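Re: beginner question about structure tokens

> Can someone show what the tokenized structure looks like for a real chain? I only ever see the sequence side.

Sure, here's an example I had lying around. Input first:
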Amino acid sequence: MRSFLIIWIGQFASLLGSEMTNFALTIWAWEVTEQATPLSLILFFSQAPKIITALFSGILVDRINRKQLMILGDFVAGLSTIAILLLFTTNNLQIWHLYLSAAVNGLFGYLQALAYSASLSLIIPKQHYVRATALNNLQMSGSYIIAPALAGAIYRFTGLSGILSIDIITFIIAISTLTFVTIPQPQNSEVNHKSISSNLQKLTFGFRYLLRYPPLIALLVFWVVTNFIDGINFSILGAMVLARIGNNSTLFGTLMAIFGLGGLLGGLTISIWGGPKRRIHGLLAGKAIWKFGLLMISLAWEWGLRIFAGALSGFVSPFVSSCNQAIWLSKVPPDIQGRVFSARFIITQIPRVLAAAVAGPVADNFFEPAMRTGGSLVPIFGDIFGTGTGSGMALMIGSLSIFGLLIALSGYAFPLLRDVEVILPDHDENLTSQESRV
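And the corresponding structure tokens:
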């Protein structure tokens, strides 16, 4: 796993800088507007270009040098951060600049992430799939711990410019580490060349592959529903927390760090353990527990309860993503993972993008006014969620978290989803018969 670990270190540095920037920009945008809509639109503009890119990025990843694609992603993200820094230092930074930056970073960031994820099965042995994906989640959790604390401290003394400068340095580190490793390109099978002989077939190959396997379709349906719920929750979560704690960046950073600490412990646990034998349990049960933790955050008035809920949600999040990715890595042949994962991404991210587009406006124009003193929803939910700023967003998150919890638990009632690992053999066990049917 030497090459993987070198890449992991560089990408951790890059992710740390990016999370510090995201944290600082969230505070800056809330201070300027005090509305949920700008924060949800930043998420929308970061996700929407990925869907368009995913139509052809799978072909690029399976055909073009994956190492070069990863370097390109870091390079463009670095240029975007430089542009934001220049605008801020010249007092020209506006909210719409963040939308544009989010779109650029989302587009090239997805291309880089796809090249990386599609290379994992060629860099590391099969028995380490869950551990590698857990380490990637550990990377995210570690950045959630360190980034808020660093950003909160640095922001007080240097403002946004200091955070952006650090972000630029981390991109340089990420690109440097990539130059020291070799990322192999997969060999394309003969049947693969025959099955994608036309341009249309190239674009639709991933979708046609998925349609051949109902258990994978069941997984996709599950993610479509839960991603819509998560898309709304994530779009307004930061605004809700900042509103309920009086825009206290220290407390906000503490909660985010606790969430990251929980994820760090969860990532370490699954890295050492390797995950449940039936990985679907890590996915379904983890999703249910994660939603329960988010429900607690929306209901909690005591700071200690918020800390516990954040740690709980953070702890189970690596189980969900690691087990899900391990299922896909083991079921889909490496030489077509780029196109199949692109198709998967398009299908599952459309609801997240739609959710990001509507979450902020719905919160600002309906739920927030309805949960203020004299609002239409106060007689029903006022005693539970309160009537101050952020109560409407808390009601949204709480209601959707209950629904998401029930969806996760109901997954056990559907054999195609519950038994996906039993019904569908691993790609290295039945590779020839699987691809011959495409």
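Each token stands for a local structural state, so reading them left to right follows the chain. The chain has one domain: 2-179+205-427.
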